[in-house]
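# nightly structure sweep
# worker-07 picked up a monomer target from the shared queue
# config: single-sequence mode, recycle default, output format = structure tokens
# input follows
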Amino acid sequence: MVTISSTGSQDFAARQARNGWISAVIVLCFLLFFCLVGLSVDYVYFDAFTIHGPPIPIATLMALSFSAVVTFTAYTQGGTLILASVAAENLDIEIPEHRELHNIVTEMALASGC
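# output follows
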């Protein structure tokens, strides 16, 4: 049986702040990973850190640029991309199923105090 351990009694705002820090650490690890991959490619294939190698670690800069673009795109357009991938649409209150869904979500939000 799997149990979920809680970190004490925290309210929603405290958990949201904690998750924000965890997300920042994950993004930093993602960028660091790509930087290390670029450094490895530069060292193994291009001899970037020797006298005869190129003066600029090109693979490292390319990997870091790629990871920065992916991270920025995920940050700015992530929600839109996910909603588009599942063909989500805005609620139209005139449609009975949409109105029912809106009412259920509103009731759940009120019950949870959000």
